[in-house]
């Protein structure tokens, strides 16, 4: 089939490669324009653009999907279907261009976790299962008719970054199966039950502040849900301390929330019901370290308490 592929981050790359490997005719790859990234704010191409260059595919870089010239270009290409993976919200005059329609790959089992950050919120909320969904795009975000879904279990200690990698591969399989169903005219769509919907809004910095008064298991899920990016954070003295990996302990007790305990080169923090072991962290201005390495270079006095602000 003649396809236009739309995507930007790493998550979309396995799907793009799978479409090419399946011998579909990729008319163009639509992605964001190059933009400043990383600490040095170097202007770099998106992960999808980099992959498209490696695959020698035509590339369309856009600032806005509402641009009239962009829309005219899509109409000239006349695709059978458009495949959208981790891209932008498309207006009706764009997603209605293909002969068959436009479908999106979403990293949740819709209608659960509609929104920009489904992987993060599924982990934060302690979900045991998640997956990917392909659906035909309509005029409301993440509400279109479902084509197919693939499920997977979430590991107890799995981070958002680790789960995203797995779901990107599972998603690539879903994209290829969806294209096969479309090509064979064997699609059986299913309406979403809006009464079961949950939200997965864009993550803001203030969302990532750790509340040590909550149970250790809840804090554990919170931290891994924001790992590795943007990172759950607290404050050690007047410096931000990001925490990326933890281990929830079993048992119970009453401790002042946020109190640090160091024992045999291991780093523990008191939560609402028990201590949580910190395994990987990064102090502001320093590099990411395993807790044992961090403790060798940092002076953490007995009774130190992690706080919600610098003051």
Share of helical residues: 25-40%
The stretches of 5 or more residues where confidence is low (pLDDT under 50) are: none
Number of structurally distinct domains? 2
Chain-averaged pLDDT: 95
CATH architecture classification of the largest domain: 3-Layer(aba) Sandwich
The order of strands across the largest sheet is 5-2-1-6-7-8-9
Range of strand content: 25-35%
Shape: elongated
CATH topology of the largest domain: Rossmann fold
Name the features:
alpha/beta, Methionyl-tRNA Fmet Formyltransferase, Chain A, domain 2
Explain how this protein is built.
- The chain has two domains: 2-196, Rossmann fold (3-Layer(aba) Sandwich), CATH 3.40.50; 205-297, Methionyl-tRNA Fmet Formyltransferase, Chain A, domain 2 (Roll).
- The chain has eight helices and 15 strands.
- It has helices spanning 13-21, 47-54, 68-77, 92-95, 118-124, 160-183, 216-225, 291-297; strands spanning 2-7, 25-32, 35-37, 42-44, 59-62, 81-85, 101-106, 129-136, 146-153, 232-236, 239-248, 260-263, 266-270, 275-283, 289-290.
- Strands 5-2-1-6-7-8-9 form a seven-stranded mixed β-sheet, sandwiched between helices. Strands 10, 11, 12, 13, 14 and 15 form a six-stranded antiparallel β-sheet that branches.
- Helix 5 (118-124) packs antiparallel against helix 7.
- 37% of the residues are buried.
- The mean pLDDT is 95.
């Amino acid at each position: 089939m003649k396809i236009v592929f739309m995507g930007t981050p790493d998550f979309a790359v396995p799907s793009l490669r799978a479409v090419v490997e399946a011998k579909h005719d990729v008319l163009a790859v639509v992605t964001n324009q190059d933009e400043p990234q990383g600490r040095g704010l170097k202007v770099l191409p998106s992960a999808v653009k980099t992959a498209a260059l490696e695959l020698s595919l035509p590339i369309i870089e856009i600032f806005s999907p509402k641009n009239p010239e962009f829309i005219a270009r899509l109409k000239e290409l006349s695709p059978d279907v458009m495949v959208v993976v981790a891209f932008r919200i498309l207006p009706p005059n764009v997603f209605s261009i293909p002969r068959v329609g436009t479908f999106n790959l979403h990293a949740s089992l819709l209608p659960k976790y509609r929104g920009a950050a489904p992987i993060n919120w599924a982990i934060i909320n302690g979900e045991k299962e998640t997956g990917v969904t392909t659906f035909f795009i309509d005029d409301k975000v993440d509400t279109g008719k479902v084509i197919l879904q693939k499920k997977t279990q979430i590991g107890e200690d799995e981070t958002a970054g680790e789960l995203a990698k797995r779901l990107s591969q599972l998603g690539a399989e879903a994209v290829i199966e969806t294209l096969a169903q479309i090509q064979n005219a064997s699609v059986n769509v299913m309406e979403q039950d809006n009464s079961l919907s949950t939200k997965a809004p864009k993550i803001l910095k203030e969302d990532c502040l750790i509340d040590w008064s909550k149970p250790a298991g809840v804090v554990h899920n919170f931290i891994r849900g924001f790992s590795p990016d943007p990172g759950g954070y607290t404050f050690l003295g007047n410096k931000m301390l990001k925490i990326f990996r933890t281990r929830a302990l079993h048992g119970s007790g009453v401790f002042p929330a946020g109190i640090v305990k160091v024992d045999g080169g291991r780093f523990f923090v008191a939560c609402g019901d028990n201590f949580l072991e910190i395994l990987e962290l990064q102090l502001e201005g320093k590099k990411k370290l395993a807790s044992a390495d961090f403790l060798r270079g940092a002076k953490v006095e007995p009774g130190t308490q992690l706080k919600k602000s610098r003051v």
